[in-house]
Write a structure and sequence with these properties.
Distance between the termini: 40 Å
Number of helices: 8
Number of strands: 0
Structural class: mainly alpha
Low-confidence stretches: none
Order of helices and strands: HHHHHHHH
Mean pLDDT: 78
Helix content: over 70%
Shape: elongated
Strand content: under 5%
Length: 226
């Protein structure tokens, strides 16, 4: 369950980035600059949520039902312990925590990349709020019209974001995270496909289908192998 809590923590950090991005939706001048980070954040969030859904709904829930059903027919404490041990072993195996160190290593790399990306973008949003807080409100003209006040506020936010986005390291950072995430995720899915084919494990096939429901990464892997 520590592993699932970590996955939830990564998801929460990505949701915080999503909240930060909502403040930029009204900024027409910088929306195009943020499109790559919008897309990458959503893909990472999709990966985390689909893996969590797989682990909780497709593994833990049915296995817990089977475990409870087995307890109804248990006649001794030894049978209860055997059923419990089988339940734990099956859950750990199907969420990739045992027997497949390579798969777990790939999964950990993807989750670490998602967390690092979320922390960096949240820090970028904090820098924006700090810069906006240092703006002197007395230097702006006194505006009474609400529409003009909103326009002035949006213009100020546009200018602040543009000054931050003009720094080349932001676009380079997003591009770097995109390359790393796609490479690690493709490696993870490639190994999932290989394991499900060689060992005929149905749960790996379910995981691969859920993470690559539209065959986007499968097409990239096929192109890379051609």
């Amino acid at each position: 369950f520590r592993h699932l809590l970590y996955c939830r923590y990564v998801e929460r950090k990505l949701v915080e980035v999503w909240v930060d991005h909502q403040y930029t939706k009204e900024l027409d001048q910088v929306r195009k600059n943020f499109s790559p980070s919008y897309s990458l954040r959503q893909r990472m969030l999709h990966f985390c949520r689909d893996y969590i859904y797989y682990a909780t709904v497709e593994v833990l829930e049915p296995q817990s039902h089977r475990f409870l059903e087995s307890l109804k027919g248990a006649d001794s404490i030894d049978e209860v312990l055997r059923s419990h041990e089988q339940f734990l072993n099956t859950c750990l195996r199907e969420v990739l925590l045992t027997e497949r160190e390579g798969l777990y290593r790939h999964l950990s790399k993807v989750l670490t990349t998602c967390l690092t990306f979320a922390c960096n973008l949240h820090r970028f949003a904090s820098n924006f709020h700090d810069m906006q807080a240092t703006e002197d409100p007395l230097t702006a003209p006194l505006i009474q019209n609400p529409a003009e006040m909103r326009l002035a506020r949006v213009t100020q936010k546009n200018n602040t974001y543009l000054s931050l986005l003009s720094q080349r390291h932001y676009s380079k950072m997003i591009s770097k995270f995109k390359v790393i995430f796609e490479s690690q995720l493709q490696g993870f899915l490639r190994q999932v496909q290989q394991e499900s084919t060689t060992r005929y494990e149905h749960f790996l096939s379910n995981l691969g289908t859920r993470l690559d429901y539209n065959d986007y990464y499968s097409s990239l892997l096929a192109g890379a192998g051609a």
